[in-house]
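This section describes the prediction task in plain terms. A model, or a person checking by hand, is given the sequence of a single protein chain and must write out its three-dimensional structure as a string of tokens. No templates, partner chains or ligands are provided. The sample shown here is typical of the held-out split.
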Amino acid sequence: MQDISRSIEACAAHYGHDAEAMKQYLEDGQRAALDLDNRGPIEFDQQGRLVQSILDAYSKYGFYVFTGVLSEEECQDLEADLEHMKTTFPTGPESKVDSQGRPAMGADSLTPSLVWSKPLGDPLGGTELANGRHQVKMFEPEAKEAAPAAAPFILLGSLRFSDACLRTYAHPELLRVAEAINGKDFAPFNEALFIKEPGIGAAVSWHQDGVTHWDSQDFDEGIHGFNFMAQLYGSTAVNGVWVLPGSHRLGKLDIKSLVSDSNSERLKGAVPLVCGRGDVVICNRQALHGSFPNSGFEPRLTVNFGFHRRSSVLGVQGGGIHSDAQVFDETIIARRSKVLGYAIAARKERFPEEQAYEYQPFKEAGLSFEWNDAARADMKDYNRDDLSI
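The expected answer:
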């Protein structure tokens, strides 16, 4: 088991009389996650299809840990972009300038860019934000006195701000996985960076991502799509996302009752997504998941991006969480998909030795894309068309 004993001790110490129970929960979860048969490299069979054992495990648990997906070179690109982006962040939640007095990242955006939280807080839990899907509030430990008043923890529309994230979005093996799960005409969803700095990283209360299709006559385990979670520094029981295995098959859950049955926010049966540097998790959006405040010592940066079945979004009234609610027609889907064309073109420039992914809707329409200044300008506020369901 990954040695995170110091972080587990530090995290548990914040829970007062529950410290020993929290310590045991984190240790047991870390161990249980590594005992599951749902991790390993991406594998395809001789026909180029994702191997059945991966499909079966993903269907059983609602998530799968793909190991060693991102090369060290790609991780270093992401790391360099993150460090640069931090220099352009606004100085606070209400600020439009960075620390040098320049217009901050996203200052000219029509959509929000950075989501902030008080250190070790849970800004979404128990509120009506995001359609009230975060039904309970997580415990909020006291941060150290030197902690800032607020810290960024989600960067929305991340592909616009980071070329490295844009290139990761077009990773050919991940897009082949997306095709295997959602079909050759799969549609984009939403992209973000989750920033969980040690000692200040916010919690994300237990929730299910799906909004639109819970009562659909066509409801099944994949109707709300999935997210990829690429890990730059790895993730653990302390700083990582926790998932309730198999919950993606159960429909819309009463989270308050689950917390009550568990006598705390330490939900029975949940496990953390334990990952190394460069690992990528595929996680069903219907799976119940959340994360505790990062009161340990290791940072987490998750490059998050998701995909849908086209049938799940075409002609559907959007859920309005990531974008304005609207009926998604072919024009909107095509407009939102352009970023994938730009991403594939950008990745070709950086990794010319790779076999680039061919996206079937582009091929059928005879479309080609270049990554240049015009493309960059076209991506401004691209996430206003996020296909939120």
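For orientation: The CA atoms of residues 36 and 61 lie 9 Å apart.
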